[in-house]
Fold this protein.
Amino acid sequence: MTPNPFNSILLGSTSPLPFQGHFRIRVGNQACQADIAGRVAHQATPEDSWSYASFIHQSLLAANGEDALSLIRDCWNRLLVIPRHKISPQNGLDLSLLITARDSDLSAISSVGLSGIWEDVGTDELQIIANEQTEESSHKGIPTKAPKALTLPLESGRFFATCLGEPLAIGTRVAATTRMGKNDE
Amino acid sequence: MNKLLSGDLRGLELPRDLSILRRDAEEAVATGQPLDALYEALAGEHPIALGELVYGPKALRGDMAVLASLKVLETLENNLQPKALYPRLVSLGQNTATTVLDAAIARHPNASWVTTLSKKLNIVPGLQQLTDQVDSAGFAESCIEHAHRGHTEALLSLAAQGHPEPSSALLLAGDSKSSIEAASLALRARPDADVIAWLSAAGGPHIDSFLCQLLPHLQSRKAVETLHQKSGPFPKTHALLRAILPAVR
């Protein structure tokens, strides 16, 4: 059986190694599922970036919940208890994270450290959900308390996001695809 | 500076003044003066005369002359076939053969005569430059640059010394097959080479199936153990490594 495509896509940066410090993980259960894409420690060496990214990946692995919103809350609860110095050499200030979750009733997204979020609504044009001025999603790095989640209609599609400090102008699915890296799916 | 050398060709009548032109250019080579402005001016106004100086029977010799000619390749190629031009340029400079070959590869990456030329020169394109930079901070970026220029053999050679950077550079350049080869060479030389960190930095977090292609090439238990340790975020790769771990010695 082909698994559902991953719904959180954090686009590559414009640096020579575009996915340094990137990670992604799918968590949840039969009732709800969350796709998480993030980047951390991208200014460290690739080896160190990978260690920090793997650590966060590991920390989120057991996240669970009864529905989409509680699953998102559990993800944040797991992140917020990690000592900041273990998140990255910049104490988590360089964390970018996009969580999209869904259950049988709704979809929801929650994020930090992003310059933009777009929804793939099935057309060539992507629909912008948030930009650098959007307070919650553009918060720099790990927050002190769990950010709010934005609830969306159940039929929401994939979400693309760019990390804070990265160019915002993607706008189309084709442009986004060029920054998705090597994709096995 | 001499008027002609500064690119001022006013009053020059060719072919009548070719001997004057040649004399001034030879003098410039002998005294180490740059030929760039003269070559650029000739490329615009007298491409045939430029050809006389650059690749004709009495072409100017020396590294400086050859390097200046690389800045007007577009014009030179319009008047002489590349497969004749580049071997001629190689023959004119003692220390510029690699640079000329690099220029040839950059402009004609798929030409068979480029391969013939590099074999004849016994030069692996890019190898010297990459070797010079191996301990510098810019090594990774240099690998990427060379990967985009098609210097696969040089990158594989560096990978065989245990460096993971070439595998990531080749992946960025879209050469997945060579990227896997480079990663396996790096692991063969240095089983703890962190190829997963480098490959994921280049290809992103969606490379699970790609990483699986690396597994048949693993030759040491240490390499399998290291990869297993690092591959947690890639479930397919991680599971396969766990499965083969007991079987490797």
